[in-house]
């Protein structure tokens, strides 16, 4: 199964650049509930944002002859480490994006999508390394996969090694990817915070 690598990689690269900007003041309520996904995010210790200054959306330029709708990859929100002023210029951050799965790949499984992401990143980013076998986890009522990897990100003529965790799940014809990333030089201190925040995501079922 193949997905368009330019779409996903362009959004992720833009997000890394966005995270160098000054974040907005965090809200008092430190949880985000996405009712349509049945998920609650606890973002204590993070600053919340919704786009490149407020929102970023990348639209593919190509149109299919059979389907003239533009396929959007959307940034649902992002979180920036509120305790950090990164020397590398790349902020420790978490972003949550969604991507509609093309109709011809509608029967794709979670394993299919994860495999396509590995192939995509290997082609787009320098020295991409998957650090462990993807783990099957539950995210609320969703079957998901947890990935850990490293790669080189080039910005302003300089390469920075990035360490990232990603949670991936599929729902109703869309793929959802939560990426939690930090420069490798800061992973020893920031890695536990990234993973801990991801592991606090839970379902919104009432007791």
Shape: globular
Helix content: 10-25%
**Considering the protein shown, what is the CATH homologous superfamily?**
Mog1/PsbP, alpha/beta/alpha sandwich
Tally of contiguous helical segments: 3
Total domain count: 1
Low-confidence spans: pLDDT under 50, at least 5 residues?
Answer: 17-27, 52-70
* CATH level 1 class label: Alpha Beta
Number of strands: 12
Order of helices and strands: HEEEEEEHEEEEEHE
- Averaging pLDDT over every residue, what do you get? 78
Describe this structure in words.
The protein is of the alpha+beta class. The chain has one domain: Protein Transport Mog1p, Chain A, CATH 3.40.1000. The chain is 20% helix and 40% strand. It has three helices and twelve strands; from the N terminus they run αββββββαβββββαβ. Strands 3, 4, 5, 6, 7, 8, 9, 10 and 11 form a nine-stranded antiparallel beta sheet that branches. Strands 1-2-12 form a three-stranded antiparallel beta sheet, covered by helices on one side. Strand 1 (31-34) and strand 2 (39-42) form a beta hairpin. It is globular, with a radius of gyration of 17 Å. Mean pLDDT is 78; it is low at 17-27 and 52-70.
């Amino acid at each position: 199964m193949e997905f368009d690598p330019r779409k996903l990689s362009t959004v992720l690269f833009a997000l890394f650049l966005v995270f160098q900007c000054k974040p907005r003041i965090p809200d008092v309520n430190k949880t985000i509930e996405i009712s349509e996904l049945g998920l609650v995010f606890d973002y204590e210790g993070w600053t919340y944002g919704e786009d490149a200054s407020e929102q970023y959306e990348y639209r593919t330029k190509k149109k299919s002859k059979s389907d003239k709708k533009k396929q959007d990859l959307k940034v649902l929100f992002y979180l920036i480490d509120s305790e950090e002023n990164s020397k590398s210029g790349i902020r420790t951050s978490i972003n949550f994006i969604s991507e509609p799965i093309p109709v011809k790949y509608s029967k794709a499984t979670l394993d299919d999508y994860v495999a396509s992401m590995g192939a995509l990143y290997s082609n787009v980013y320098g020295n991409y390394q998957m650090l462990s076998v993807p783990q099957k986890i539950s995210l609320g009522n969703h079957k998901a996969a947890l990935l850990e990897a490293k790669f080189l990100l080039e910005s302003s003529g300089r390469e920075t090694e990035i360490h990232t965790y990603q949670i991936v799940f599929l729902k109703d014809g869309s793929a959802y990817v939560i990426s939690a990333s930090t420069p490798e030089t800061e992973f020893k201190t920031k890695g536990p915070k990234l993973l801990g925040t991801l592991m606090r995501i839970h379902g919104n079922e009432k007791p």
